[in-house]
Structure formats: C-alpha cells, structure tokens
C-alpha cells in the first residue's frame, strides 16, 4: 500500500468516526500531506474532494497535464471559458454527495473556493479539519520523524556556523549569511534566519538587520531550513565577550522553564498544562510579564502547525506529536533570551531532535 493509499484509508476511518461525508482540500500543506505533492495554487478553483468511498479532483484544464504526472486520481476538468460550476457538480455527483451532508473544509483554502463548495451543497453542515486531516497530521510516522531528525541535525550545523561567525563589529546580516550558506552546503534551503543582537533580542521576531555586534551583547539566533519537504527550527543564545548584567540569572530561569515543560509533556496531558509548567517558573521568578508568546507550536510540513502549546489550548498531547518548547524572557532596551528545542513526544516523554546543548555560547574572546 502506498503512502497516499494508507493516508486515505486512515482519513476515511476518521471520517466515519466523525460523521464526515466529504473532505475538501485546496492546494497547500493538507493536500501535500495526503498526496506527497500539491498542484499549483492560484485564483482558479483546484480542489481535492474525498468522499467515504471515492475521491475526485476539481482541476483547472490549464494545470491538468502537469498534475496528471503526479497522480492517478480522477479529474473533473474545467476551462476558463466554461467556469468551474458544471465540473464541480459533476465531481460531487461522482463522489455521491449532495445537499445536507457534513463537509470538512480546508481552513487554509481561499474563501471563494470554500463558498463555491458550500454553494453547490445547499444545507450542508461545515467544519474545518481539526478532527480529520489536522488530527492525523499531528501524529508523525517513522518516515516523517526521520526527515525531521535529519533536518534538526542540519540545523545544528547551521547554528554552529552562525556561532562561529560572531565577533565584535560583524553585523546581524553577516551572521545570517554564514548560517544560510551552511544550510545550502548541507543540501537544505534556508527557511528563516533571525539574529537579534543586544536590545534587538528583546523583539521575539526581530527583522535581522545591519546592527553591528558589540562586546557585552546577548545574541538570539533563531533559525530553520528545509530539506526533502520538511523544516527545522531551533533557537540558541550567545554573548559577545561577556554577558550583559543580569543575563546569567535570566538564562538559568529560562532553562528551568524548558526543563519544567519537558517534565510536564506526556501523552494525555493538555497543551495548556505544559505551557503553564514553563510559564509558572518564569512568573515565580518575577519575569512573567516578559514571557510574551506561547510556549510552542507543532512542526511538520509547515514550520508552524498544530498542536499549539498556548495558555488556552485544550489539545490533548499524544505519542508522535512533534512540537517546539521555547520559553523566553524579553527585557526591552536590554536583551532577549529564548531557548528552543523541537521534540517528538514518546510514551515516556519528549525526545529532543537537536544534539546541540542549550548552554550559552561565548564568542569574541
């Protein structure tokens, strides 16, 4: 059984359990997870529709030839001069659905695509993919884990290249260039590179710029690349020459928060309770107002995907889920400090994908 056949089988099992009659996906991560590819997405409606027994593509004729090389799923084609309505009606008829069914819509598809589907299914009840494709995507299989692990180790090497580039007078952008060059050397595509030095580190999503590193700076480096369709993500800390005042205390607090989250993350535990375990450490140390973001996010085909570890998320964690643990403290005008690892949840707790310690790197000595 191919990967696509296996995932379609799992999806149909979940559809039966949730009373779902039709799942409709647009070009994007959900479709890519199911098929291993997705057609070009633009303003022309292109939809993969999965019923209880058969699946069909609503396919723009312009993209049909190229897409046919990737899949043998049946197409209902439509051309620009005809429009998609008749082809959509034909596809729904072949799948065997109409009227007041339960349809699950890809929450990332264009709104006009979603309205097109609902307009063709009067009286349909609709939901998003959280209990179907989304639930399946959260639990990684061995092949997905192997690719995520490979990318994490590439990320380690790119981080080491960035740390080696740190010295007084070098700009954030020059450090980022060294990191991106290492991703390329490792056969990966750079996905994002955040280098926040000194007071810039107090902005969690700082736009890496021309600021020159200075002795006494703390530097946040948050990077990720992508190889074979899967990304990486990791944050490590460095100081230039020596740490700024108060840095050692804050680093120790954030490390304790990481460890508290690692201890709390177990199958059956709510995501919000893992967030709370880390947040409470920081709050009790007097820095609660300076931890300004969620504890973590899932990682898979996308850099940010479910599960999200927030103060309000009631998602119950399970074996095979992959997510970040990344508490931080951000002191305006002084420095920021974030420690981030990607983990896969095993029966006895999280397994860290990176092999790089979270200790502070001292550069420019």
Automatic annotation (TrEMBL):
GO molecular-function term, one example from the UniProt record: metal ion binding
Domain of life, per lineage: Bacteria
Signal peptide: none
Keyword match Metal-binding: yes
Creatinase N-terminal domain mapped to chain residues: 7-98
Pfam families, A to Z: Creatinase_N, Peptidase_M24
Biological processes annotated in GO: proteolysis
InterPro entries the UniProt entry points to: Creatin/AminoP/Spt16_N (IPR029149), Creatinase/aminopeptidase-like (IPR036005), Creatinase_N (IPR000587), Pept_M24 (IPR000994), Pept_M24_MAP (IPR001714), Peptidase_M24B (IPR050659), Peptidase_M24B_aminopep-P_CS (IPR001131)
Domain Peptidase M24 per the UniProt entry, residue ranges: 147-345
SUPFAM superfamilies the record matches: Creatinase/aminopeptidase, Creatinase/prolidase N-terminal domain
UniProt keyword Zinc-finger present: no
Keywords (A to Z) from UniProt: Aminopeptidase, Hydrolase, Metal-binding, Metalloprotease, Protease
PANTHER family from the UniProt entry: AMINOPEPTIDASE, AMINOPEPTIDASE YPDF
Name of the protein: Xaa-Pro aminopeptidase
Species of origin: Hoeflea halophila
């Amino acid at each position: 059984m191919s990967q696509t056949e296996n995932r379609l089988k799992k999806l149909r099992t979940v559809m039966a359990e949730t009373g779902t009659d039709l799942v409709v996906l647009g070009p994007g991560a959900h479709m890519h997870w199911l098929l291993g590819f997705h057609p070009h997405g633009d303003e022309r409606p292109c939809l993969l529709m999965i019923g209880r027994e058969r699946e069909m593509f609503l396919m723009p004729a312009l993209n049909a030839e190229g897409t046919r090389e990737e899949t043998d799923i049946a197409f209902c084609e439509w051309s620009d001069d005809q429009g998609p309505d008749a082809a959509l009606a034909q596809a729904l008829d072949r799948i065997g659905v109409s009227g007041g069914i339960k349809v699950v819509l890809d929450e990332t598809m264009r709104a006009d695509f979603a309205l097109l589907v609902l307009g063709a299914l009067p009286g349909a009840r609709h939901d998003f993919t959280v209990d179907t494709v989304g639930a399946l995507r959260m639990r990684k299989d061995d092949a997905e884990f192997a690719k995520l692990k490979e990318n994490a180790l590439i990320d380690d090497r790119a981080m080491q290249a960035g740390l080696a580039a740190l010295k007084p007078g070098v700009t954030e952008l020059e450090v980022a260039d060294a990191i991106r060059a290492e991703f390329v050397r490792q056969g990966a595509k750079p996905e994002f590179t955040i280098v926040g030095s000194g007071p810039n580190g107090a902005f969690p999503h700082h736009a890496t710029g021309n600021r020159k590193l200075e002795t006494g700076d703390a530097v946040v480096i948050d990077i990720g690349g992508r190889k074979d369709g899967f990304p990486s993500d990791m944050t490590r800390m460095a100081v230039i020459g020596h740490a700024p005042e108060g840095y050692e205390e804050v680093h120790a607090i954030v490390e304790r928060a990481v460890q508290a989250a690692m201890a709390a993350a177990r199958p059956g535990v709510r995501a919000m309770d893992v967030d709370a375990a880390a947040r409470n450490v920081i709050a009790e140390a007097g820095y609660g107002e300076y931890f300004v973001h969620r504890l973590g996010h899932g990682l898979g085909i996308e850099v940010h995907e479910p599960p999200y570890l927030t103060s309000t998320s009631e998602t119950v964690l399970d074996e095979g889920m992959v997510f970040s643990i990344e508490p931080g403290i951000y002191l305006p005008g002084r420095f920021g400090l974030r420690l981030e690892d990607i983990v896969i949840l095993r029966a006895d707790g999280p397994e860290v994908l990176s092999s790089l310690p979270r200790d502070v790197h001292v550069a420019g000595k």
